Amino acid sequence: MKRCPVDSVGEIDWALWTPTELSSLLFVVRGGQILLIRKKRGLGAGKINAPGGRLEPGETPADAALRETREEVGVVPLGIREWGELRFQFTDGYKLLCHVFSADGCEGETVETDEALPLWTPLGAIPYEEMWADDRIWLPLMLSGRRFSLRSIFDGDRMVDVEITAHDPAAPLFEHLRNLGIATETVTHPPVFTVEAAKTHRVHHDGHHVKNLFLRNKKGAMWLVTLREDRHVDLRELGKRLDAGSLSFGSTERLRAYLGVEPGSVTPLAAWNDRQHAVTVVLDASLVDAPGEKIHCHPLTNDRTTSMRANDLIRFLTSTGHQPVVLAFN
User: Fold this and answer.
1) Which of 35, 91, 159, 247 is the S-S candidate for 155 at Cβ 3.0 to 4.6 Å?
2) Is the separation of the CB atoms in 102 and 35 below 8 Å?
3) Within 13 Å of residue 95, how many CA atoms lie on the same side as its CB?
4) How many CB atoms lie within 10 A of CB 214?
5) What gap in Å lies between CA 191 and CA 123, rounded to an integer?
6) How confident is the model at residue 3 (pLDDT cuts 50, 70, 90)?
Protein backbone atom coordinates (compact mmCIF):
# COMPACT_ATOMS: atom_id res chain seq x y z
CA MET A 1 0.00 0.00 0.00
CA LYS A 2 1.37 3.41 -0.97
CA ARG A 3 2.60 5.42 2.00
CA CYS A 4 0.85 8.77 2.73
CA PRO A 5 3.58 11.37 3.40
CA VAL A 6 1.32 14.10 4.89
CA ASP A 7 1.25 14.92 8.60
CA SER A 8 -1.45 17.61 8.57
CA VAL A 9 -5.16 17.30 7.90
CA GLY A 10 -5.00 20.57 5.97
CA GLU A 11 -2.62 19.06 3.40
CA ILE A 12 -5.24 16.57 2.16
CA ASP A 13 -7.77 17.45 -0.55
CA TRP A 14 -10.74 15.87 1.19
CA ALA A 15 -13.05 16.62 -1.76
CA LEU A 16 -11.01 14.11 -3.79
CA TRP A 17 -10.26 11.75 -0.90
CA THR A 18 -11.67 8.25 -1.52
CA PRO A 19 -11.77 5.67 1.28
CA THR A 20 -10.21 2.26 0.88
CA GLU A 21 -13.04 0.77 2.94
CA LEU A 22 -16.30 1.79 4.63
CA SER A 23 -17.29 0.84 8.18
CA SER A 24 -19.82 1.53 10.94
CA LEU A 25 -19.82 1.79 14.73
CA LEU A 26 -22.90 1.46 16.94
CA PHE A 27 -23.18 2.50 20.59
CA VAL A 28 -26.18 1.18 22.52
CA VAL A 29 -27.04 3.66 25.30
CA ARG A 30 -29.62 2.74 27.94
CA GLY A 31 -30.20 3.18 31.65
CA GLY A 32 -27.14 5.36 32.19
CA GLN A 33 -24.82 2.82 30.53
CA ILE A 34 -23.17 2.42 27.14
CA LEU A 35 -22.35 -0.87 25.43
CA LEU A 36 -18.65 -1.08 24.54
CA ILE A 37 -16.49 -4.03 23.50
CA ARG A 38 -12.93 -5.21 24.00
CA LYS A 39 -11.99 -5.94 20.40
CA LYS A 40 -10.22 -9.28 19.97
CA ARG A 41 -9.00 -9.16 16.37
CA GLY A 42 -8.58 -6.94 13.32
CA LEU A 43 -7.84 -3.21 13.27
CA GLY A 44 -7.68 -1.98 16.87
CA ALA A 45 -7.43 -5.44 18.45
CA GLY A 46 -7.03 -5.09 22.21
CA LYS A 47 -8.60 -1.65 22.31
CA ILE A 48 -12.03 -0.76 23.67
CA ASN A 49 -14.52 0.44 21.08
CA ALA A 50 -18.15 -0.04 20.06
CA PRO A 51 -19.50 -2.98 18.07
CA GLY A 52 -19.00 -2.41 14.36
CA GLY A 53 -16.99 -3.25 11.32
CA ARG A 54 -16.63 -3.04 7.57
CA LEU A 55 -19.57 -2.89 5.18
CA GLU A 56 -20.29 -5.93 3.07
CA PRO A 57 -21.27 -5.58 -0.62
CA GLY A 58 -24.75 -4.08 -0.98
CA GLU A 59 -25.01 -3.01 2.66
CA THR A 60 -25.87 0.46 3.91
CA PRO A 61 -23.92 1.80 6.90
CA ALA A 62 -26.98 1.23 9.11
CA ASP A 63 -27.34 -2.36 7.87
CA ALA A 64 -23.69 -3.02 8.69
CA ALA A 65 -24.02 -1.47 12.16
CA LEU A 66 -26.98 -3.73 12.99
CA ARG A 67 -25.35 -6.88 11.57
CA GLU A 68 -22.00 -6.32 13.26
CA THR A 69 -23.64 -5.69 16.63
CA ARG A 70 -25.61 -8.93 16.37
CA GLU A 71 -22.54 -10.90 15.28
CA GLU A 72 -20.12 -9.42 17.82
CA VAL A 73 -22.22 -9.27 21.01
CA GLY A 74 -25.50 -11.05 20.21
CA VAL A 75 -28.02 -8.22 20.71
CA VAL A 76 -30.40 -6.45 18.31
CA PRO A 77 -30.18 -2.63 18.61
CA LEU A 78 -33.41 -0.64 18.73
CA GLY A 79 -34.06 2.89 17.49
CA ILE A 80 -30.72 3.57 15.81
CA ARG A 81 -29.69 7.08 14.77
CA GLU A 82 -26.66 8.32 12.82
CA TRP A 83 -24.54 11.00 14.47
CA GLY A 84 -21.48 11.55 12.37
CA GLU A 85 -18.68 10.46 10.07
CA LEU A 86 -15.04 9.70 10.83
CA ARG A 87 -12.42 9.94 8.08
CA PHE A 88 -9.13 8.24 8.90
CA GLN A 89 -6.05 8.66 6.72
CA PHE A 90 -3.28 6.28 7.80
CA THR A 91 0.33 7.04 6.93
CA ASP A 92 0.69 3.61 5.28
CA GLY A 93 -1.90 4.75 2.69
CA TYR A 94 -4.97 3.00 4.12
CA LYS A 95 -8.11 5.19 4.21
CA LEU A 96 -11.22 4.42 6.24
CA LEU A 97 -14.60 6.16 6.35
CA CYS A 98 -16.65 5.23 9.42
CA HIS A 99 -20.32 6.05 10.13
CA VAL A 100 -21.24 6.43 13.82
CA PHE A 101 -24.65 5.36 15.15
CA SER A 102 -26.34 5.13 18.53
CA ALA A 103 -29.30 3.05 19.70
CA ASP A 104 -31.75 3.70 22.52
CA GLY A 105 -31.77 0.07 23.62
CA CYS A 106 -31.49 -3.49 22.43
CA GLU A 107 -33.17 -6.87 22.50
CA GLY A 108 -31.43 -9.94 23.87
CA GLU A 109 -28.55 -10.48 26.25
CA THR A 110 -24.95 -9.69 25.39
CA VAL A 111 -22.61 -12.63 24.84
CA GLU A 112 -18.87 -12.89 24.36
CA THR A 113 -17.81 -14.04 20.90
CA ASP A 114 -14.49 -14.76 19.20
CA GLU A 115 -14.60 -11.14 17.94
CA ALA A 116 -15.45 -9.16 21.05
CA LEU A 117 -15.95 -9.06 24.81
CA PRO A 118 -19.05 -6.94 25.64
CA LEU A 119 -18.65 -4.27 28.34
CA TRP A 120 -21.67 -2.42 29.77
CA THR A 121 -20.05 0.76 31.08
CA PRO A 122 -21.45 3.70 33.11
CA LEU A 123 -21.65 6.84 30.97
CA GLY A 124 -19.51 8.67 33.49
CA ALA A 125 -16.73 6.05 33.41
CA ILE A 126 -15.91 5.57 29.72
CA PRO A 127 -12.27 4.31 29.55
CA TYR A 128 -10.95 6.69 26.90
CA GLU A 129 -7.36 5.79 27.81
CA GLU A 130 -7.99 2.31 26.34
CA MET A 131 -9.70 3.57 23.18
CA TRP A 132 -8.52 5.17 19.93
CA ALA A 133 -7.12 8.66 20.55
CA ASP A 134 -9.86 10.39 18.54
CA ASP A 135 -12.71 8.82 20.56
CA ARG A 136 -12.37 11.26 23.44
CA ILE A 137 -12.94 14.11 20.95
CA TRP A 138 -16.15 13.03 19.22
CA LEU A 139 -17.85 10.51 21.55
CA PRO A 140 -18.75 13.22 24.14
CA LEU A 141 -20.35 15.19 21.30
CA MET A 142 -22.56 12.24 20.38
CA LEU A 143 -23.52 11.70 24.01
CA SER A 144 -24.49 15.36 24.37
CA GLY A 145 -26.67 15.28 21.25
CA ARG A 146 -24.38 17.04 18.76
CA ARG A 147 -23.71 15.79 15.22
CA PHE A 148 -20.13 15.88 14.00
CA SER A 149 -17.62 15.22 11.23
CA LEU A 150 -14.00 14.29 11.98
CA ARG A 151 -10.90 14.09 9.78
CA SER A 152 -7.67 12.64 11.11
CA ILE A 153 -4.28 11.23 10.27
CA PHE A 154 -2.93 8.17 12.09
CA ASP A 155 0.48 6.53 12.09
CA GLY A 156 -0.46 3.07 13.34
CA ASP A 157 -2.52 3.78 16.44
CA ARG A 158 -0.85 7.16 17.05
CA MET A 159 -2.94 10.18 16.09
CA VAL A 160 -0.79 12.62 14.10
CA ASP A 161 -3.39 15.33 13.42
CA VAL A 162 -7.13 15.83 13.75
CA GLU A 163 -9.85 18.30 12.79
CA ILE A 164 -13.51 18.18 13.87
CA THR A 165 -16.61 20.19 13.10
CA ALA A 166 -19.77 19.85 15.18
CA HIS A 167 -23.33 21.10 14.91
CA ASP A 168 -24.47 23.31 17.78
CA PRO A 169 -28.24 22.92 18.27
CA ALA A 170 -28.19 25.82 20.72
CA ALA A 171 -26.89 28.43 18.25
CA PRO A 172 -30.40 29.78 17.38
CA LEU A 173 -31.30 29.73 21.09
CA PHE A 174 -28.29 31.86 22.03
CA GLU A 175 -29.09 34.30 19.21
CA HIS A 176 -32.66 34.63 20.51
CA LEU A 177 -31.40 35.31 24.03
CA ARG A 178 -29.07 38.01 22.71
CA ASN A 179 -31.93 39.59 20.76
CA LEU A 180 -33.94 39.72 23.99
CA GLY A 181 -31.03 41.48 25.69
CA ILE A 182 -30.61 38.62 28.17
CA ALA A 183 -27.14 38.33 29.63
CA THR A 184 -25.88 34.76 29.96
CA GLU A 185 -22.68 32.98 30.93
CA THR A 186 -21.91 29.51 29.58
CA VAL A 187 -19.24 27.06 30.73
CA THR A 188 -18.33 23.80 29.03
CA HIS A 189 -17.70 20.46 30.74
CA PRO A 190 -17.93 16.73 29.95
CA PRO A 191 -21.46 15.44 29.27
CA VAL A 192 -23.30 14.84 32.56
CA PHE A 193 -26.37 12.65 33.01
CA THR A 194 -27.16 12.99 36.73
CA VAL A 195 -27.19 15.73 39.35
CA GLU A 196 -24.33 14.01 41.17
CA ALA A 197 -22.20 13.92 38.03
CA ALA A 198 -22.96 17.59 37.36
CA LYS A 199 -21.70 18.53 40.82
CA THR A 200 -18.25 17.16 40.04
CA HIS A 201 -17.83 19.61 37.15
CA ARG A 202 -19.47 22.61 38.77
CA VAL A 203 -17.90 26.05 38.40
CA HIS A 204 -20.65 28.26 39.89
CA HIS A 205 -21.75 27.70 43.47
CA ASP A 206 -24.06 30.69 43.73
CA GLY A 207 -27.70 30.82 42.68
CA HIS A 208 -29.78 27.74 41.89
CA HIS A 209 -28.75 24.58 40.07
CA VAL A 210 -31.76 22.70 38.81
CA LYS A 211 -33.11 19.33 37.79
CA ASN A 212 -35.78 18.89 35.15
CA LEU A 213 -38.61 16.38 34.73
CA PHE A 214 -40.34 15.72 31.41
CA LEU A 215 -43.73 14.27 32.31
CA ARG A 216 -46.93 13.17 30.62
CA ASN A 217 -50.34 11.92 31.68
CA LYS A 218 -52.52 9.16 30.24
CA LYS A 219 -54.18 11.61 27.85
CA GLY A 220 -50.83 12.62 26.34
CA ALA A 221 -50.62 16.09 27.89
CA MET A 222 -47.04 17.03 28.79
CA TRP A 223 -45.23 19.08 31.42
CA LEU A 224 -41.64 20.29 31.75
CA VAL A 225 -40.99 20.75 35.46
CA THR A 226 -37.89 22.63 36.66
CA LEU A 227 -37.00 22.41 40.35
CA ARG A 228 -34.11 23.01 42.65
CA GLU A 229 -31.77 20.08 42.32
CA ASP A 230 -32.29 18.98 45.94
CA ARG A 231 -36.07 18.61 45.62
CA HIS A 232 -37.75 15.25 46.08
CA VAL A 233 -40.97 14.98 44.09
CA ASP A 234 -43.99 12.74 44.59
CA LEU A 235 -45.44 12.36 41.08
CA ARG A 236 -48.84 11.35 42.44
CA GLU A 237 -49.08 14.52 44.54
CA LEU A 238 -47.70 16.64 41.71
CA GLY A 239 -50.33 15.23 39.35
CA LYS A 240 -53.05 16.30 41.78
CA ARG A 241 -51.66 19.81 42.15
CA LEU A 242 -51.43 20.25 38.38
CA ASP A 243 -54.88 18.71 37.88
CA ALA A 244 -53.10 16.31 35.53
CA GLY A 245 -54.15 12.98 36.95
CA SER A 246 -51.58 10.20 36.93
CA LEU A 247 -48.14 11.38 35.77
CA SER A 248 -45.25 9.35 34.36
CA PHE A 249 -41.97 10.18 32.66
CA GLY A 250 -42.21 10.92 28.94
CA SER A 251 -40.46 8.58 26.53
CA THR A 252 -37.20 9.38 24.78
CA GLU A 253 -39.04 9.55 21.45
CA ARG A 254 -41.57 12.03 22.86
CA LEU A 255 -38.78 14.08 24.44
CA ARG A 256 -37.00 14.42 21.11
CA ALA A 257 -40.21 15.11 19.17
CA TYR A 258 -41.49 17.92 21.39
CA LEU A 259 -38.45 19.39 23.16
CA GLY A 260 -35.70 18.48 20.70
CA VAL A 261 -33.18 17.31 23.30
CA GLU A 262 -31.57 14.05 24.34
CA PRO A 263 -32.01 12.33 27.72
CA GLY A 264 -29.71 14.05 30.20
CA SER A 265 -30.13 17.41 28.45
CA VAL A 266 -33.64 18.31 29.63
CA THR A 267 -33.79 22.02 30.49
CA PRO A 268 -36.32 24.85 30.72
CA LEU A 269 -34.55 26.35 27.70
CA ALA A 270 -35.91 23.44 25.63
CA ALA A 271 -39.21 25.34 25.51
CA TRP A 272 -37.49 27.04 22.57
CA ASN A 273 -38.02 23.88 20.52
CA ASP A 274 -41.70 23.42 21.45
CA ARG A 275 -43.14 25.43 18.59
CA GLN A 276 -46.50 23.62 18.93
CA HIS A 277 -46.86 24.84 22.54
CA ALA A 278 -47.74 21.29 23.49
CA VAL A 279 -45.71 21.29 26.73
CA THR A 280 -46.63 23.23 29.89
CA VAL A 281 -43.64 24.66 31.75
CA VAL A 282 -43.69 24.49 35.54
CA LEU A 283 -41.16 26.31 37.74
CA ASP A 284 -40.35 25.75 41.39
CA ALA A 285 -41.47 28.95 43.16
CA SER A 286 -38.22 29.08 45.15
CA LEU A 287 -36.32 29.56 41.88
CA VAL A 288 -38.09 32.82 41.10
CA ASP A 289 -38.62 34.27 44.58
CA ALA A 290 -35.52 36.41 44.05
CA PRO A 291 -35.73 37.75 40.45
CA GLY A 292 -32.04 38.64 40.34
CA GLU A 293 -30.83 35.24 41.53
CA LYS A 294 -28.93 33.17 38.98
CA ILE A 295 -30.37 29.94 37.57
CA HIS A 296 -27.95 27.43 36.02
CA CYS A 297 -29.24 24.97 33.38
CA HIS A 298 -28.18 23.16 30.21
CA PRO A 299 -28.46 25.03 26.88
CA LEU A 300 -30.03 22.05 25.02
CA THR A 301 -26.92 19.88 25.40
CA ASN A 302 -25.52 18.40 28.60
CA ASP A 303 -21.91 19.35 27.91
CA ARG A 304 -22.49 22.98 28.90
CA THR A 305 -24.18 24.97 31.67
CA THR A 306 -25.72 28.38 31.01
CA SER A 307 -26.49 30.89 33.75
CA MET A 308 -29.04 33.71 33.69
CA ARG A 309 -31.15 35.66 36.16
CA ALA A 310 -34.47 34.18 37.22
CA ASN A 311 -36.48 37.09 35.81
CA ASP A 312 -34.67 36.70 32.49
CA LEU A 313 -35.56 33.00 32.38
CA ILE A 314 -39.21 33.89 32.81
CA ARG A 315 -38.90 36.58 30.14
CA PHE A 316 -37.38 34.01 27.79
CA LEU A 317 -40.12 31.46 28.47
CA THR A 318 -42.79 34.07 27.88
CA SER A 319 -41.17 35.02 24.57
CA THR A 320 -41.57 31.42 23.40
CA GLY A 321 -45.25 31.34 24.31
CA HIS A 322 -44.70 29.34 27.51
CA GLN A 323 -45.95 31.45 30.40
CA PRO A 324 -44.71 29.25 33.26
CA VAL A 325 -46.86 27.82 36.02
CA VAL A 326 -45.11 28.74 39.29
CA LEU A 327 -45.68 26.08 41.94
CA ALA A 328 -44.52 26.04 45.56
CA PHE A 329 -42.82 22.79 46.58
CA ASN A 330 -42.33 21.90 50.23
Assistant:
1) 91
2) no
3) 15
4) 21
5) 9
6) low
